[in-house]
Amino acid sequence: MRPSGRKTDQMRKISFERNFSKHAEGSCLVKFGDTHVLCTASLEDKTPPWLRNSGKGWVTAEYGMLPRATGERMKREAAAGKQGGRTQEIQRLIGRSLRAVIDLEALGERQITIDCDVIQADGGTRTASITGGWVALHDCLKWMEARNMVKLDRVLKDHVAAISCGVFATQPVIDLDYLEDSAAETDANFVMTGSGAIVEIQGTAEGTPFTEDEFLTLMRLARAGIGELVTLQKQAIL
C-alpha cells in the first residue's frame, strides 16, 4: 500500500493555472498534489553572446526553492552567494527538455527564460517544473504570435512533459511523493514528448540494483503517465 493510498499506476491530482503572473509573457502555477511550482516565461529581444548573429534563439531555465517550500526553512542560495549542484543540475534538465520541442531558428534571435520557483515541495519538483514550464512557454509564444513576432506552430514542435517513477516497497509506482521518494529502492525521472519520443531518462538504484524488467515496467508506467499529462496540457491551453 502506498502512503497516499494511490494505486501503483495512479498519479496525484494535476492542475495548471495559467496567467498566474500579471507581468510575465507566459505563466503557469502547476500542482502535482502537494508539490506546487510557479513557472514564468520571460522574453528578451536578444540572445546569449555566443549565439549573436547566428539567426537562432535560445530557451533556458532557472530553478529555485522558496525557504519554506519544505518542512524546515532552507537558506536562500542567493544568501550563500552561489547555487548548489542540485539546483544547477535541475535547471539544466528543464532547459534541455524544453529546447527539445523548440525550433530555435523559427524563434529568431530572442531568448525565453523559464523561471521555476518551487512554492511547496512534496517530491517531483523537477518533473512538475518541466510539465508546467511547457505551458508557460506555450503562452509566451502565443503572446509573441499575437504581436506578429513568430508563428506558434512553427516554433513549438510538440508537447513535452515529465514524470517520476520508482520502486517503493518492492512495487513499481508512478509519481512519487516525498515519503516514497525518500524511501525508494529505485528512483527515475522520465521526460518525453507528446509524440512519445524520449528526451531524457534519469535512473538510480538507491539500494539493490534494478533489473531490465523492472526498468521496462517503470518505462511503461512513465509512458502512460506522460500521455495523461500531455492530455491535461492540451485541455489547459484551450
TrEMBL record:
GO terms (BP aspect): rRNA 3'-end processing; rRNA catabolic process; tRNA processing
Keywords annotated in UniProt:
Nucleotidyltransferase, RNA-binding, rRNA processing, Transferase, tRNA processing, tRNA-binding
List the coiled-coil residues: none
Q: Which residues bind phosphate?
A: R86, G124, T125, R126
Q: Which NCBIfam families match?
A: RNasePH
Self-association and partners: Homohexameric ring arranged as a trimer of dimers.
Task: Identify this protein by name.
Answer: Ribonuclease PH
- The source organism is Ciceribacter ferrooxidans
